[in-house]
Amino acid sequence: MKVKLLNVLTVSLVTLALISPGIVVFSLVWGHHREFVKTQNLSCELQKINIASPTVFPQTKIIATQPPLAKVKLSNNNFLYQLQMAAKKYKLATILQWLFLVTPICIGVGIIAYDRYLVYRAAVFRENIAMLERMWQQSIEQ
């Protein structure tokens, strides 16, 4: 039973090791594709806003409560904040991808290392028993 489980885990780890680069590349490409689609949607929204600008549809009364530079600064800070949040999300996603990739590999390596340790301990135990048996045989002969 142990040997079958070890074989299944070994095959699973080898398969994961062979497939994992493809999975990582696919996830990176998919993430960049989603960002590209978002920027396309934002550019469409910007074009809609430009169509509805005051030059096309003039307003009769414009109320200026804040200077235009303050609005630009606010939107610039908001854009920087959005960029920082996107970078944090990207870092978190990358960390989670590596975590999901490395965790099964570490578990498999741990199982294999523990199995090798048990084999080593059994060999040392057999050697100790053989040495004790030789000592016992020598004590009987004397």
Short summary of the structure?
Helices cover 87% and strands 0% of the residues. The chain is rod-shaped, with a radius of gyration of 33 Å.
Annotation keywords:
single chain, 142 residues, mainly alpha, 87% helix
Describe the model:
- The protein is an all-alpha fold.
- It contains two helices and no strands.
- The protein is rod-shaped.
Blueprint (SSEs and pairs):
Elements: H1 2-51, H2 68-141
Reading the helices and strands in chain order gives HH
Structural class: mainly alpha
Which range does the strand content fall in? under 5%
C-alpha termini separation: 46 Å
Total DSSP E strands: 0
- Characterize the overall form: rod-shaped
Low-pLDDT segments, ≥5 res: 69-74
Q: What's the pLDDT, averaged over the residues?
A: 76
Radius of gyration: 33 Å
Approximate helicity band:
over 70%
Largest β sheet strand count, sense and barrel closure: none
Q: Count of helices?
A: 2
